[in-house]
Write a structure and sequence with these properties.
alpha/beta, five-stranded parallel beta sheet, four-stranded antiparallel beta sheet, 9 helices, 9 strands, globular
């Protein structure tokens, strides 16, 4: 059963030991700062709130680039990152995806190219039948593929950029999605549309974990 929008505050309890780690989608404990810690159980939809910009930056650097400060602790998808070999870290990183606040698109490519070219470059065999999948996902996310897919980012609304980046992520079927400031910069109708993003993900990846990063506080 999905936990819809469970809030996980900065400073949340951080269990010790490997048994607890195996039940976590994400755990981070900063070095020398007992209040900067995040623990997200696996599965469902969660919101991490109450981090400062600096804390969020450190958290993302640890998760996305494995830049973990000395003395800090990172658990990703039930695995303690400390001590992993480079190949093991790379394989683990591929199981997590990040949706930035602006969609993370390449400005020189239209929406279709931003979605399919990364897949074609790494796994050409997956391009078979990709059009139907892309059109279907855009429709599930309340977008119009005929209108969206030919657009360059400079002609897209912020919502369209986020939708495009999200479709690209959904095609990868990651075990963990981190969405940064998902509703930021959007109007009321667009914010309402993003509320369906986690449901589409869970429909395609029932065991996955969707985490919103939102609600920054002052340092």
């Amino acid at each position: 059963m999905n936990r819809e929008d469970l809030s996980v505050q900065g400073g949340a309890a951080f269990p010790e030991g490997s048994p607890e780690a195996r039940g976590a989608a994400l755990g981070y404990k900063a070095a020398g700062d007992p209040e900067h810690r995040v623990w997200v159980p696996a599965g469902g939809t969660h919101s991490v709130r109450g981090l400062t910009l600096g804390e969020k930056t450190k958290l993302l650097a640890a998760i996305l680039d494995f830049k973990v400060e000395k003395g800090a602790r990172l658990v990703l998808l039930g695995i303690e990152v400390a001590g992993l070999k480079a190949a093991e870290r790379a394989a683990l990183r591929e199981r997590a995806a990040f949706l930035s606040g602006n969609g993370g698109l390449l400005s020189s490519l239209n929406a279709w190219e931003n979605i399919v070219l990364p897949i074609g470059f790494h796994e050409p065999k997956r391009l078979h039948g990709i059009a139907a999948k892309v059109y279907g996902l855009v429709g599930e996310l309340r977008g119009d593929p005929q209108v969206l897919l030919p657009k360059l980012p400079e002609r897209m609304s912020l919502y369209e950029k986020k939708l495009t980046g999200y479709v690209r992520i959904l095609l990868e079927r990651p075990d963990l999605i981190l969405a940064d400031d998902l509703e930021g910069g959007l109007n009321t109708a667009e914010r309402a549309a993003t509320e369906g993003f986690p449901a589409v993900y869970h429909a395609h990846c029932p065991g996955g974990t969707f985490v919103r990063l939102e609600g920054l506080r002052d340092a």
